[in-house]
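User: I'll paste a sequence; please echo it back and then give the predicted structure.

Assistant: Echoing your sequence first, then the prediction.
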Amino acid sequence: MSTVFIALQANEDTRPIIEAIEIDNPNATVNRQPAMVKIDAPNRLVIRKETIEEQIGRSFDLQELHINLITLGGNVSEDDDSLTLSWAE
């Protein structure tokens, strides 16, 4: 099993995004630090536009993630509706 991760700045803009990631990835581990939040998941992490929109109450473009993105680990697969981090097996 390999771990994938994403780290985002810790601020009010990312709070609902992090909540959405937690909803869609119940096996993920969220590590909150003063300046960032790192989310680790075994094998795969999916970030869904629809879930983020439900949390923030407005339309969301997944490209907005890049504003607060610090780093990530895993192969990235992205379309208009989701961003998936995984390792090829």
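The chain is about 25% helix and 40% strand. The radius of gyration is 12 Å.
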